Amino acid sequence: MNASSFKDCEAWRAQGLPLSTSSNEACKLYDAVLTQYVKWQNDETLGGIEGSISALLAADPNFVMGHVISTGLELAGTGSSIRLNKSLAGDVKRTVELAISQDISPRERLHVKAMELFSRGSYSGACDVWEDILVDHPTDMLALKFSHDSYFYIGAQNSLRDSVARVLPYWKPQQPLFSYLKGMYSFGLLETKAYDQAEKVAMEGLALAPEDAWSVHSVAHVYEMRAEVEKGLKFMESREKDWQKSDMLASHNYWHWALYFIEKEQYEAALDIFDSQIFRRCKATGSMLDTVDACSLLSRLEMEGVCVKDRWRELLQVTQPHTDDHVTLFNDFHFLMASLGAKESATSRRLLEGLQELAKEPGVNQQHQMANTVGIPVCQAMVEYDHGNYSRAVELLYPLRYNIVKIGGSDAQRDIFNQLLIHAAVKSENEHHKKLGRCLLVERDAVRPGSPLTTRLMQRAMALH
């Protein structure tokens, strides 16, 4: 990326997306931040996203959309909440005040409104506003990308697909970032089980931009969901040099690679990826995506009977400072894996009690609204499983199995809760649960035939009974 290729005031106007600033520099830097966000890539020549944001806010300190993208990105990272982070709360407030004091366009006003709703945990409300923007401005990439990420956080699988499908015809192939819509659309197709089409669309994206890590990630999901392990391994390896450049998504793609190794019972290879890539990156970035992947990978390995040694204690150093965040239930569940794994019962208790407290008066925060129905019972099931109370874990988890989608993440990420339920059922003292465990395995086999992991679990279930 070079700075001259970014859009100035006139170029944004020509695209029908005028920005309320007279600074060409601010317009170009806004484009630079947006481009890095879409590509999941910190461009060092621009000082990365952080450097670009600092330069952007310096170029025009009162540029409303500069504040929208800067504060919006921090919120979308889910590593911080306005409830605990006073500086972030101040940024939201300042953006709203700037918008009130200036004569900005209706589109920019809606952006401010969406960011403010998101900051209060009303993710669906924010998505509705971004969709309103896209009806009139289908090429507004910020609205599209923010809504894409937010649909992911609330498990709105059909919306993930349809929000991109609706705008695709309005984009011209020569428009910057056009190819990245393919990866986004592919991901929505994949999460709605349209695997063949998802693979085709992602490959179209990669033909246009081989370094598009989100398209790579989408194909990795397809092979995961179809249990095409060898294909997945070959694919990740053949394109590693391309997708590695996307430093914000690389760790997650390595996580997918490690899942194939777990399927194949190659636990040392999976641990090697954990040590050399996932944990190293998660410690360096503190990114929530990297952190939940690290927790999930260790949990899966432990369920397979692998000894992960001191890794939980090291990972706890990263998760523990987030115990009181409660930004998303998805994050909470993964932090709990770490505190349970590290045998840090005080932290586990604190996380659960904090969630119970917030569930009493959730306000508009959808994650806190779901705490009573989904969040707390899943946490309790994890604790019961950890204590060896398998039948209790089944009683808590089984009724929620079709609701867990609402915690967000992907089918592949949420699969850990399916696995947990199966393990609990198979290990339970209760005869009915044991039968249930076998039923769940039959069902799993029907959904992704030929999975070595499922075959192993079936053998284990038969041997136990």
Q: What report would you give on this structure?
A:
This protein is mostly helical and 465 residues long. The protein has 3 domains: 1-143, Alpha Horseshoe (Serine Threonine Protein Phosphatase 5, Tetratricopeptide repeat); 171-245, Serine Threonine Protein Phosphatase 5, Tetratricopeptide repeat (Alpha Horseshoe), CATH 1.25.40; 284-464. Helix content is 71%, strand content 0%. The chain contains 25 helices and no strands. Helix 4 (64-76) packs parallel to helix 6 (106-119), helix 10 packs antiparallel against helix 11 and helix 24 packs antiparallel against helix 25. It is globular, with a radius of gyration of 22 Å. It starts with 8 loop residues before the first helix and ends with a helix. The mean pLDDT is 97.
Average pLDDT score: 97
Number of domains: 3
Counted by DSSP, the helix tally is 25
For the secondary structure, the number of strands is 0
What is the first-to-last residue Cα distance? 60 Å
Structural class: mainly alpha
Q: In percent, how much strand structure appears in the residues? A: under 5%
Q: Name the helicity range.
A: over 70%
Unreliable stretches: none
Q: Rg, please?
A: 22 Å
Shape: globular
What is the H/E order?
HHHHHHHHHHHHHHHHHHHHHHHHH
Describe the largest sheet: none
